[in-house]
Q: What sequence folds into this?
């Protein structure tokens, strides 16, 4: 890789850190205004708060085939049920073509709403089809929840660290973030004080195999969290895209089911078919109490009318007779091997003082470099890419104060032999830093 | 139809008129707070500004099969190329399954961006693939443009009347609307004064077969509009979902091509495959200048990552070899007949003093009842539905002061014999009112 190329990552990320997005965008507007004509538009304040995802920028820079990338969260395409999806689109268009291609209800395809509600009821949650709205992937759920619940300047509670894509979605609605203290077992329920929760729109949490850390919140903390949220009348958003991808340990009760047990409906749950079927379908769901789901449906109507009918019908066709019961365990077997390969390689190659999480499932683990040696994973990325291995630096996952000696590794995209090779390379880069 | 049922439309619409949505939603929150527990959330200010689409509410009430509905804008399903779409999904999943089901670029599928850009260049616009972003239907284009360009309280210029769905999308970003004076030939360019355009985010216009009026803006006014917009440095959003559905008269140059001719890039163009292929696919596009499309892509990334890959690839497969060149004329022939049937029936049955537009294309025409007889199309709808015929009252299409003696009729959903029968019934209802 050329010097210029290497420089581009560091300078890009440095530039992002140095100039808050709003100022940078304004500065650019002013520049282009001086150099050419004044553009016939100004970005809104909220638009000045967005920048491109750091992850997507890194993915672009590292997409050379010789780079072993632990950066992206792309599910392995060998898990996609391509032939079944093909047959399902074929059948839906053959037998119900007119309704599959017509405008549909904003809330989604009825039988699929029923299926999702029935599935959630199995886990002990009290949910009817009327509480379900289909969305164009989990990311849209985040957008709609931000739209409907967040006023500019309002607090939103997040884990430390938290999912970068959620911060990007919520940023458009201009919240202030309050970080909930967390340790290796996830967020600490006792950190959610009345003061922290005051005026908050909600707490956003990923209890299973969290992105980015791979941590799982266990039952004791889940119960404590729900009790606390009820006491403080705080809405909890449970984002669970990875919950079905468990490789070891006991399944934990969902926050939604615990709220049902407590006789309270203060949990909104988000789910996705991106990790169990395929992400390119862009299909996820929100389960929410009646008054809230009604407002979310109105917001979705104004946002994109509805999610593609043909995709919803095809997905229902694939899953309606229990396909996921046999398919998900096969995906888990594959990812478990890759996760184990990464854990073993880390054990074998990483220098003294480097620590990492041991995820019970999901797609990611979290590496912490010795705190006392001045490591900064943003600059480490340059050296890593020069050696043909990539990861995502930890900093962008922190809503407030960040920990620079952390990084995220994905184990789902790359096969075991490449994982071993990539971890060895990464260990060398860390040693040399 | 029962009294209760009839009453529900009137009271629903009356209630909407009497209570601004924000107040109503707050009142309901307070009620439920008193009666049950305080909900663990409050809607955002912007969420309090949304209500469900009046059209969708009417559609629900009038979906009994015996009602002849001129209310909805559902394309006729006989125009959907079902078999071709089936083969296209089949081929895409058979030959490119892994990429069709994987995460894709936010801006959309490359070859489809190229196709759209080439198509726009044919009309004289200066557009590269890099200026195109695929979106989940035109409605999403409206959401993203509002997100990126509108600050709360900022003026947005709209036609009189204008597309209700655009008002719903923009409402979430809390603009104030300034209505541009219009006559039977569409908006009056000279009405766009410096005072009207001051601080405006943009002018939103539907120059071809406008929804709801069916009016077309002709070349002279288009040129005057573009000149004026350039002089005032005003951004123009050209929404053109129906442009290909022309039944008579000369095709008019797009606003985008006129801006290119004038050497200026102050026009953003929106298009859709909903009317030329099928709406259930949820596929449309935005063409915009480089700096603006980059920001829109960032906003879409935060909003839903990208539009379903498999749908984009299947649509490209269907259209890449010129299918629309033979398909669209067939759709036009069908809709022309239905449009003519409606125009003839109106001529035959409507009482003296009722006037209507003669659309050159599209899906709608606009009826004006004699102004001096106190007609109110909102209350007229009750009587109409009791006689098994439905339409959409004109009021919700006005951003500011509304004209109560107007209504919108769609001629695309119902076949000619039902159109004749429905218009006859509607004429009787008007006579009896």
A:
């Amino acid at each position: 890789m050329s010097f210029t190329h290497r420089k581009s990552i560091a300078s890009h990320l440095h530039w992002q850190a140095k100039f808050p997005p709003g100022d940078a965008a304004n500065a650019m507007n002013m520049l282009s205004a001086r150099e050419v004509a004044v553009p016939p538009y100004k970005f809104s304040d909220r638009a000045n708060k967005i920048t491109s995802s750091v992850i997507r920028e890194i993915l672009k820079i590292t997409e050379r085939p010789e780079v072993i990338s632990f950066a992206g969260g792309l599910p392995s395409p060998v898990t996609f049920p391509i032939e079944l999806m093909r047959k399902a689109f074929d059948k839906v268009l053959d037998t119900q073509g007119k309704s599959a291609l017509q405008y549909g209800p904003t809330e989604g395809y009825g039988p699929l709403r029923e299926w999702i509600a029935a599935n959630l009821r199995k886990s002990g949650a009290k949910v009817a089809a009327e509480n379900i709205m289909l969305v164009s992937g989990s990311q849209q759920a985040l957008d709609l929840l931000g739209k409907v619940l967040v006023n500019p300047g309002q607090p939103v509670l997040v884990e430390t660290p938290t999912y970068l894509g959620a911060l990007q979605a919520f940023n458009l609605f201009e919240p202030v973030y309050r970080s909930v203290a967390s340790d290796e077992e996830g967020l600490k329920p006792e950190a959610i004080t009345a003061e922290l929760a005051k005026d908050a729109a909600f707490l956003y949490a990923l209890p299973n195999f969290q992105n980015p850390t791979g941590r799982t919140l266990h039952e004791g903390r889940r119960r404590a969290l729900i009790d606390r949220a009820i006491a403080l009348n705080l809405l909890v958003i449970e984002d669970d895209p990875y919950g079905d991808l468990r490789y070891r340990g006991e399944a934990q009760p969902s926050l939604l089911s615990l709220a049902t047990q407590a006789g309270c409906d203060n949990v909104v749950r988000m789910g996705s078919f991106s990790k169990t079927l395929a992400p390119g379908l862009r299909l996820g769901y929100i389960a929410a109490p009646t008054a809230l789901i009604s407002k979310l449906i109105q917001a979705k109507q104004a946002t994109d009318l509805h999610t593609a009918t043909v995709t919803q019908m095809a997905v229902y066709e694939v899953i309606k007779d229990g396909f996921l019961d046999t398919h998900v365990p096969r995906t888990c077997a594959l990812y478990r091997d890759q996760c184990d390969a990464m854990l073993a390689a880390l054990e074998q190659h990483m220098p003294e003082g480097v620590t990492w999480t041991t995820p019970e499932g999901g797609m990611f683990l979290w590496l912490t470099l010795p705190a006392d040696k001045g490591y900064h994973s943003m600059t480490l990325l340059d050296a890593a890419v020069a050696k043909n291995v990539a990861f995502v630096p930890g900093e962008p996952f922190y809503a407030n104060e960040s920990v620079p000696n952390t990084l995220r590794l994905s184990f789902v995209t790359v096969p075991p032999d490449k994982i071993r090779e990539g971890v060895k390379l990464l260990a060398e880069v860390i040693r040399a830093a």
User: Anything to note?
Assistant: Chain B touches chain A through 89 residues (CB under 8 Å). Chain B has three domains: 1-51, 52-73+321-433, 100-320.
